[in-house]
């Protein structure tokens, strides 16, 4: 996230004030120190640590700042946009929440679909704005998909994140831990079936195992709200039209993935899904080690490809030419000959 914003902002000739997440300020402070050591002039890159209502609002409403790029929740994004509008009407780009669908058709390569959708939701312990938390599976392969997905989730190792043998460390803090566990309990209460996970790991720490729910319907809370944790909802569908309608029935529109060997079907789905990014047969988020069994290193974050959301997943784009333009202004100059 830091590089996605710093890179184009600096390339376009801007100075930067970065308000860090109050949960993870040290990374930005360290990179700022590296920039100083590399020879960046004083004042070009500035880091501000603090909380959203104070430090964040100060940035969004500051009269000398002319552009704000924000990544976070939809609720906070609306506050940033309001502060920007009520101050100096500064430019705003927002990369916000999501409830991304992964759609698996009956003709898909099932092993690849299982591995890919697993990585799509369990990457970074599910703490990812484009996490594919709603997995729609065709009824003809649903039971087999659930079985394979459950077994794949069982192999994900939870523990010390500094241990190279670990796949999943803890959630970011106690607040997020209790939020995720609350959603898991809500899923149980509303009648979804826990295929695996569903209970904390150990008596201490904020460890939540990969949790897989089957027998999920669209009205359940876990199928509607962004959880931001390692919780997958497996839903059954019958037809293309049905799954498009259900996948789009959300306030979000950040990303989606489609798994099929039918090129025409894939193209239709890419056009019909209301999402800023659609992956075909490849819900790919960079990961070290074995990429959840995919066997190769994926390339979802190609810096040439713009990324951003539809609807309440945000506005504007990051990466690519479009991302660079977010940090520029267009000026028209019309000259009549002076001779």
TrEMBL record:
Keywords: NAD, Oxidoreductase. GO terms for molecular function: aldehyde dehydrogenase (NAD+) activity. It comes from the Eukaryota. The active site is at residue 95. GO terms for biological process: acetate biosynthetic process. It is an enzyme of class 1 (oxidoreductase). Residues 1-333 form the Aldehyde dehydrogenase domain. Its EC number is 1.2.1.3. It holds the Pfam family Aldedh. This is aldehyde dehydrogenase (NAD(+)).
